[in-house]
Amino acid sequence: MWTILHALKLKYNKNTEEYNKFKHLTNSLDLVIYSLYLCHSDNSNIFDLTMEVHQFNVKSLEQTCFEVLKDHLCPENCIGLWQLTNACYIPIFLQLKNEAFHFICENFEEVSLCEEFLQLAVQELADILGQDDLTVTQESTVYQSVLRWINHMPEERQGAIATLLPKVRLGLMDKSYITDNVLNNDVVKTNPESHLLVSKTLKVMSKPSLLCSESGINNTLFCRRLPNAVLLMFRLFPKNIEAFDDRTNSWITVHTNPSLKNPMTNLRFYSTVFLEEYLYIVGGGLGWTDPFNRVWRYNLVTHTWQEMSPMQDSRRSVSVTVLKGCIYAMGGCRNLTSLRTAERYQPDINQWTFIASMNEGRISASSTTLNNKIYICGGRSNFRILNTAEYYNPDTNQWTLITPMGTPRCGLGVVAYMGHIFAVGGNDGSIDLRSAETYDPGTNTWYNVPEMVHTHSYFGIAVMNKQIFVVSCSTENRIAECYDYAKNTWSVVFSAIFALHLISTGLVEVLINLTGSHLSLDMCKTILATMTSLGAEREEVGSVRTAEPGDTGVLFGILPQIRYS
């Protein structure tokens, strides 16, 4: 790109306005490249360069500048970039504006402690605080950020409490906290409008029936903010879709009784994967033999099923994952024999094609993606439990074995997390496992990590909010626990008896990049609107049956928050 700009500069005669513009542009580019090389790039330089590049309609460099600015978003600079793009009407800046605003909302707790936060205008702050998708662990964080902003310039900003306090979801706070820290706060007490709002909120909290009749009280004060992600579980038996909110440690039924097509009603040993706005069911069968090559997908918006193009091979207990908009199905079992074959599904043309076969046949293995590669670990090769692992490079269509795991594992969970591959739980051929280990691609080495609190095999696993979540549905209890990388510990986040009707432990682990999500707004609303409703159906206690590995399915994955753009 640098060469192209310098060549364009030579088209113009020296001392002309066009020549001087190109000379300035190439000098700006030189400065940015030098700054990036030294790893201390100035976002304002890149921003100015983007403005200049736009004048000359150099689209590829304009896109490159956008990617650099987006990649350099951090709590310390996101507000400044958002404010800069607010004043510009270049299309790519509108995109950057949305990215910066989303970053602010998703990382609000960190952003609110930075210097730029204190420079926000009152209406800018009100716009941020009013977002349903503002990510905070507890609402008191929002209130404390308002006080911090006001106390930065108390004389000029005290009156802004009347604008900002209604943006705080007071109804989500503890009553004692409101009484001690809000109602009796000097800034609130000196503003009659704000003091009255808090008093009425406390009154409604004591008697919820007043919510509709109490004047001056907005329902928004009592509406939960949308989580930035939820764990999504889909089960054929009982036929429902549930979501787990880690902020409240509770399961919420978001859809019941999805219509099923024969022979899906008796399907077993299938696998599930989440792509765009669809849940895909891949393979499976009605018993131990005669597996299907059939594929169905479920539309989360219309709640309808559609049968898709079949796989090239019939497979049950197959490993599935998503990479670059395609579904990969690897291994599995046919007529009690483990399969080495693998294939790729392209949804745009509704077609499956074979890719290179794995080095080893694998049944009930687990897979994930990292650095544009597919990693598959463990499983069973006929009657031998495997500790082997390998990765697939789609650019070369080649599988490569890596260092074996320390423990053989079948029915394990595998997920990419913090730049590593984590292999968790499973069964070693005799017992279910609590152990876990992590693989460093840079050193081709496995390391042990702390054991889980409970044993888990044939379960769901996903990354959410910078933690690994594991949900087991193969015992009489539903148990969810999570691993925190910073603390290097596992902890139980949910445990309860629940109705288990032939529930499988098949899984899909999906982490969708919120900044690049292709999910429709309608689909997100379908799932997440339920998360904020006051009367959401919670987990019920019912009859219990222990599931066998592969019994009719569970989809377990991550659904991102509603993305406004």
Task: Write the SSE topology.
Elements: H1 2-9, H2 17-37, H3 43-55, H4 59-71, H5 78-86, H6 91-106, H7 108-111, H8 122-129, H9 140-152, H10 154-157, H11 161-164, H12 175-183, H13 186-189, H14 192-206, E1 229-235, E2 240-245, E3 250-256, E4 271-275, E5 278-282, E6 295-299, E7 304-308, E8 319-323, E9 326-330, E10 333-334, E11 337-338, E12 342-346, E13 351-355, E14 366-370, E15 373-377, E16 380-381, E17 384-385, E18 389-393, E19 398-401, E20 413-417, E21 420-424, E22 436-440, E23 445-449, E24 460-464, E25 467-472, E26 477-484, E27 489-497, H15 521-532, E28 554-560
Antiparallel strand pairs: 1-2, 1-28, 2-3, 4-5, 5-6, 6-7, 8-9, 9-12, 10-11, 12-13, 14-15, 15-18, 16-17, 18-19, 20-21, 21-22, 22-23, 24-25, 25-26, 26-27
Please name the defining characteristics of this protein.
single chain; 565 residues; alpha+beta; Serine Threonine Protein Phosphatase 5, Tetratricopeptide repeat; Neuraminidase; 2 domains; four-stranded antiparallel sheet; 28 strands
What features would you describe in this structure?
Residues 78-183 form the BACK domain. This is Kelch like family member 10. It holds the Pfam family BACK. Keywords: Kelch repeat, Repeat. The protein is α+β, with helices and mostly antiparallel strands and 565 residues long. It has 2 domains: 120-222, Serine Threonine Protein Phosphatase 5, Tetratricopeptide repeat (Alpha Horseshoe), CATH 1.25.40.420; 229-560, Kelch-type beta propeller (Neuraminidase, 6 Propeller). It is built from 15 helices and 28 strands. The strands form 8 sheets. It has a 4-stranded antiparallel beta sheet, covered by helices on one side. Strands 4-5-6-7 form a 4-stranded antiparallel beta sheet, with no helix packed on it. A 4-stranded antiparallel beta sheet has the order 8-9-12-13, with no helix packed on it. The longest helix has 21 residues, at 17-37. 42% of the residues are buried.
